[in-house]
Amino acid sequence: MDTSGTSRLIVGITGATGSIFGIRLLEALAGAEVETHLVISKWGAATLVHETPYSVEQVERLASSHYSPQDQGAAISSGSFLTRGMVVAPCSMRTVAAIATGQGEHLVHRAADVVLKERRKLVLVAREAPLSEIHLENLYKLARMGVVILPPVPAFYNHPQSIEEMVDHIVMRILDQFDIHLDLRARWDGRMRAGRERAES
């Protein structure tokens, strides 16, 4: 186990649509020598089972360690447990509000609060549309604290051919925030060409 924290990443999955982002992120990190510490909220678990063919147990097995959302005594609830930071993917607006106001209802909130107080990197893959003034105020408050707000907005310049390719591109961009550079899909190379030209090549 990494005691320096340089290869540890906390992963939270909460009850917004887009569970596949957290799952795919764990899959990508499984072979990248990154120690992952997973916590899935109650509604994150319910949404995961509804949206994907995975069970909660299958997703937990993708992580190096996993914790109950009610386990406030878990390693990731302490700042003395060194990590590279935390990503919440997907991140519900309820979770955004809880983090922005310092509410520690469950372990996802508490772990994020620890990352904030220790000045480590926190990335929120915030999922909601449209955004209300309350959502925007909470996101702005967190952004001013240095939190990276990374909505899972698809890119089309790389001409994705499937949902899987779009998910991989977003996961790649999330991991870039932690200086974990996995080329899951082609990166932008500065070359502009018509979509029809690509289809014919």
Features:
single chain, 201 residues, alpha/beta, Rossmann fold, 6-stranded parallel sheet, 6 strands, 40% helix
Task: Describe what you observe in this structure.
- The chain is α/β, with parallel strands linked by helices and 201 residues long.
- It has one domain (8-200): Flavin prenyltransferase-like (Rossmann fold).
- 40% of the residues lie in helices and 15% in strands.
- The protein has a six-stranded parallel β-sheet, sandwiched between helices.
- The radius of gyration is 17 Å and the shape is globular.
- The fold-level CATH name is Rossmann fold
Helix content: 25-40%
**Stretches with pLDDT under 50, minimum 5 residues:** none
According to CATH, what is the class? Alpha Beta
What's the quick description here?
This protein has helices at residues 19-30, 42-51, 56-62, 93-100, 107-117, 133-144, 163-176, 195-200; strands at residues 8-13, 35-40, 65-67, 85-91, 121-126, 148-149. It is of the alpha/beta class and 201 residues long. It has a 6-stranded parallel beta sheet with strand order 3-2-1-4-5-6, with helices on both faces.
Topology of this protein?
Elements: E1 8-13, H1 19-30, E2 35-40, H2 42-51, H3 56-62, E3 65-67, E4 85-91, H4 93-100, H5 107-117, E5 121-126, H6 133-144, E6 148-149, H7 163-176, H8 195-200
Parallel strand pairs: 1-2, 1-4, 2-3, 4-5, 5-6
Helix pairs in contact: 1-7, 4-6
